[in-house]
Design goal:
Order of helices and strands of chain A: HHHHEHEHEEEHEHEHEHEEHE
Number of helices of chain A: 11
Largest sheet of chain A: 5 strands, parallel
Strand content of chain A: 5-15%
Shape of chain A: elongated
Helix content of chain A: 40-55%
Oligomer: homodimer
Radius of gyration of chain A: 25 Å
Number of strands of chain A: 11
Strand order of the largest sheet of chain A: 2-1-3-4-5
DNA sequence: ATGAAAGCGCTAACAA
DNA sequence: TTGTTAGCGCTTTCAT
């Protein structure tokens, strides 16, 4: 494996000149540059990234910690973040936390500092109580909504607003007994914020808030959605609309309702949240909230890059909230 | 940021002893170890991975190059590979190639050698003609089927066998005009291998092979499946079964047939390939081939680790083929 | 069981 | 415009 020294020797220059050529520094005569490039080609020289990292104190890699990439939502998020990072010449290393608090703290751990230039953490296990654990001295951006006002930058979704809009949409379509399917509601998190939006919409419309309509599940996936929908149908619970806090949950619900012989949207209308690719093709196609993933991912990466590049400790932390649009499809009557 | 030197000073030992403690080497007295651990805790010491990498010539990270992680198939693959890599104490950095030949060659490029200990390449752009480009002197495992007999390890799917079985299943369910939906067929790749299996099954059953039933699309996604299915229906093409070379394509087809008012499975039966999570919940649920992803991912990582750990150049290259099972669901009549 | 010396390959800072 | 010096933080080797 050829080193800079070897190239320097072969080209009859100093290692520093080779380094300057590699890094496109000015102040290198054209003839010299060509001699060097020629030697590099002859020796099939490749920079040793480890050495460069050590010297520079940068790795050119950011970490992305998500519960699981194989999920439509996080998969899409990962795709977008990787693409955005590439535009900033950064690679992305993925850590799967399984939504566990411990693994999320691990990802945050300072030891990663020298491995990643920064970390984008899609928090699903950490809670508000852990906010202070985020006070680390390396760049971190939080994505998701379990921590607010923490000592870090935070890109948030328009959870409450969008959930209110989604529920209002069901009300406009004449639903009167609207269920919500969400995760365990603790303090401030995605489920609780979306639940608040749902409640607001009901209240504004003068609809009663029946606690039996608040359905909580362990995980926000297809399986849980399908199972709970079947249970709701069998239990004789009356409902004519379901707001699901994720599209995966909603597609599961569509499946469960089909199993129970309940026609959608005729008898029950269903709306999700995320606008995952599959939603458009599901039968019936799924109405949902589109939170502008691309903008969120781009913003998260941009924020992280800003922190990476600035040396002084940040004075204020940003909490931008993304836009959203309602996408109306067959599951709420087109 | 504390270094090993700082810890050594604080503990009153040599840097070497600290290193030995960190790396769990034997030959460290218990009392010494504790002194060192104590100093490490006090100084909040973290290893500098870049320095260790430089010294060891290893990074502890492998690369995973896939067309796009946001897709159900590659998302699941990534999940499984990351989990498998973790068991070997390796991190995974993801490169999205967009299925382009050039980006795949990039990922392969030796420059990555010192960045990744090895690379798992899910080839979708490279072809048989590029086989020799795979002759690099660092560990690489190919996943997918565009290159056979190349100078690298290769974990393959049971494409031909499984496609034959899938087509046979349609025949057993009384389909007589079975279409196949696949990608552009060039030389040896996933589509061509699966097409061969399809043809074999038809031939064995004495069914004619109507070229009009071979439908090729650009990308193997939901969108393409839906659009082509609608086109097929509108064109008046007669068919009573469709074998799709991916589940995404198949779910798209289910959607397209629904749009055209064609009932599945009554009038047309549909089977996919991959057994993606969504398949089970789609309406109708999708019959498909399950190629045992977990075993494939585990095998790919194990193979790569073996190459990483062995110093001599490999003598023979492995090409294990995974098992498969047919998963029969509603789209072919349960 | 512990330590001293050396160097992995690169680039920042300065000198020429 | 080019070169010299030094050192990033760690671990391998060899000595004690």
């Amino acid at each position: 494996m050829a080193t800079i020294q070897d190239v320097a020797k072969a080209a009859g220059v100093s290692p520093m000149t080779v380094s300057n050529v590699i890094n496109d520094h000015p102040n290198v005569r054209k003839a010299t540059r060509e001699k060097v490039l020629d030697a590099m080609a002859r020796l099939d020289y490749r920079v040793n990234v480890a050495a460069r990292n050590l010297r520079k104190g940068r790795t050119g890699t950011i970490g992305l910690a998500v519960p699981e990439v194989g999920t439509p939502y996080y998969g899409r998020l990962a795709t977008t973040i990787i693409a955005a990072a590439e535009r900033h010449n950064l690679r992305v290393s993925i850590e799967q936390t399984g939504a566990s608090r411990e693994n999320e703290l691990d990802a945050l751990s300072l030891s990663r500092n020298l491995l990643y230039d920064g970390l984008i953490l899609s928090a699903a296990g950490l809670g508000q109580a852990d906010a202070e654990r985020l006070r680390v001295d390396h760049p971190v951006v939080i994505l998701g909504d379990r921590i607010f006002g923490g000592p870090v930058d935070h890109v948030a979704m328009p959870n409450q607003e969008a959930s209110r809009a989604a529920t209002q949409h069901l009300i406009e379509r004449d639903c009167r007994r609207i269920a919500i399917l969400c995760g365990a509601v603790e303090e401030v998190d995605t489920s609780s914020l979306r639940l608040t939006g749902y409640r607001q919409a009901l209240e504004e419309a003068g609809l009663p808030a029946d606690p039996a309509l608040i359905q909580q599940v362990d995980r926000l996936g297809l399986h849980e959605g399908a199972q709970r929908a079947r249970e709701m149908a069998e239990s004789g619970l009356e409902f004519d609309g379901v707001f699901c806090v994720t599209d995966s949950l909603a597609m599961g619900v569509l499946r469960g309702l089909a199993d129970a012989g309940i026609p959608v949207p005729e008898q029950v209308k269903v709306i999700g949240f995320d606008n995952v690719t599959e939603s458009e093709f599901f039968i019936p196609s799924l109405s949902t909230v589109d939170p502008d993933h691309d903008a969120m991912a781009e913003r998260a990466v941009a924020l992280l890059v800003k922190r990476i590049e600035q040396t002084e400790p940040p004075t204020r932390h940003e909490e931008p909230v993304s836009d959203f649009t309602l996408v109306i499809r067959e599951s709420t009557g087109g």
